[in-house]
Amino acid sequence: MGLGKEIARIKKKIAQFFIGEFVSDHTQEIVNAVSRELRNMRDMQFMAYQEMKEDNLQYRHDIAQGLRVNLKNSEDHVLTIPNPSGFFAQPAKRTAVFYHNSYYHFHYLAQALRRRNWDVVTVSIDNPKLSSYTYYHGEDINLYHDDAWIMRDNIANFFRLAKERYGLFHFANDHVMAFDPYNYYLDDPPDIVEWKALGKKVAYTSSGCGSALLKTSVGNWSRQALGHTVCSRCRWENEPSICSDERIGAWGEKLLKYADVVFAETLPALDYLGRDTVITEPVTMCMDPTIWYPELEIPEEHLIKRDPDEVLIYHAVGNYQLRMREEGLNIKGTSFVLDAIQRLEQEGYPVRLIFETNKLNKELRYTQAQADIIVDQLNFGRYGATAREGMMLGKPTISFVNRNEPHPEQQLQCLKEVPLVSATETTVYEALKDLVQHPGKRLEIGQASRQYALKWHSHDGAAHRYEQIYDQIMAGKKPQFPESWTYFEPAKKKYSIGNTPTLDGQPAEACLLANATTR
């Protein structure tokens, strides 16, 4: 007999019992009969639960192993998630949901955490056709659907699963603290309120100067080092719907209320990023050193034809046209980079600009790997993705570094060690000329850059730091940046930067090494 019919039969007997209580002399007999039926029903429910648990085992295993739902191979982009109602998971010691793409960082951090026996999954709700996907390297699950109702059902199903399985909700990007996007702009998102009521934790990775840093504060902080403000180079300076103290302040208050830890990733400790729940040293913005590798093999279609003595200078801006001000300025200082290279050309130096925009990030590394010098940003004061990629590839990289913090004790250790060549719009010409004239210096800085990137941005080192912070917040403690962590250093290997001599050494695969170093 089916479970539904059996339950209906038992309900009928229970009804008979209540009637019989008043009209029958056999009340105790009926009570005993109903008790037997309830025991039978309980046994049947247990068996059904066991079957449902077994049905979910493969799904659980696939997620734990990093199942990738490849929407490109799906005709209708439908994702069906098993309804976990009644399924009580037995979570691993450490569990986390990474929600939204933080470039490729969550993708590689999750891989490293799985190697540490975590149960972790990366989730996106973005349309894979969006231009932002040029920056991503993949996710385990994509809940997007062209039909909004189906998409909300996907999200609701996943939320039910997440509540039973995971202990940490870690999201990226501003103003999107919720599982369901319909809750983004609510002061108290119902799904996050429920999540926290269950005793679960929330983590957030910042994405830039609008991430809980007030516009006024950023302007004052950047003026100390530049004379002009970084805001005066920003496309959104005069658009309060995107950047204003009021909007950013409301976001900061929301973070303060719900986030157990905020990963500021080197942003200055101003405003809401100066609180005791904030980690300012780099943790989550990590990379796979075997993807960005100094001896990266270049596919033939990506080879750059060049003269033997030519010095290639790489500069890139995502969404270039969108981020330009009317007067031809942008936050990266692109016009000043172009002017500096043109001036060097006029002076007879064999330099050539390689400029990229809106190209697949996984393909950009082939161009970066062939460059002699990389120039990132000249205004903001903290380095971004292009600089991290350049350093991991062992390239000398120019990027303005503003080491100012509100208090001396808040100075970042990573910025004390970073080998970036710091330059502004007014000094980029001199910085470029120095590197063009001294190939040995390029090699030396490139080697130091690779070592720095391995220490501060390799995914395995980041996973060790992340795990320690996770344990702190799950125990109800305030997050503290770890005093030590393990990371991998490569043995010396032959590689060249541009046309400089190679170094002698024994070949070794990056990150597949026996010698682990502790900070």
Report the span from N to C terminus. Answer: 64 Å
Biggest sheet details: 7 strands, parallel
Q: What string gives the helices and strands in order? A: HHEHEEHEHEHHEEEHEHEHEHHHHEE
Which spans of ≥5 residues are poorly predicted at pLDDT below 50? 17-27, 49-91, 492-519
Helix content: 25-40%
- Percent of residues in beta strands? 5-15%
pLDDT averaged residue by residue: 82
Strand order of the largest sheet: 3-2-1-4-5-6-7
Multimeric state: single chain
Which radius of gyration do the C-alpha atoms yield? 28 Å
Estimate the global geometry from the Cα principal axes.
Answer: globular
How many strands?
13
Number of helices: 14
Give the helix/strand class.
alpha/beta
Question: How would you describe this structure to a colleague?
Answer:
- It contains 14 helices and 13 strands.
- The C terminus is likely disordered.
- The chain is an alpha/beta fold.
- The protein is 39% helix and 10% strand.
- β1, α3 and β2 form a beta-alpha-beta unit.
- Strands 3-2-1-4-5-6-7 form a seven-stranded parallel β-sheet, with helices on both faces. A four-stranded parallel β-sheet has the order 9-8-10-11, sandwiched between helices.
- The protein starts with a helix and ends with a strand.
Secondary-structure map:
Blueprint: H1 3-23, H2 27-64, E1 95-99, H3 105-115, E2 119-124, E3 141-142, H4 148-165, E4 168-172, H5 190-197, E5 201-205, H6 215-226, H7 245-258, E6 261-263, E7 278-279, E8 311-316, H8 334-346, E9 351-356, H9 361-370, E10 373-375, H10 385-392, E11 397-398, H11 413-417, H12 428-437, H13 439-457, H14 459-474, E12 486-488, E13 516-518
Parallel strand pairs: 1-2, 1-4, 2-3, 4-5, 5-6, 6-7, 8-9, 8-10, 10-11
Antiparallel strand pairs: 12-13
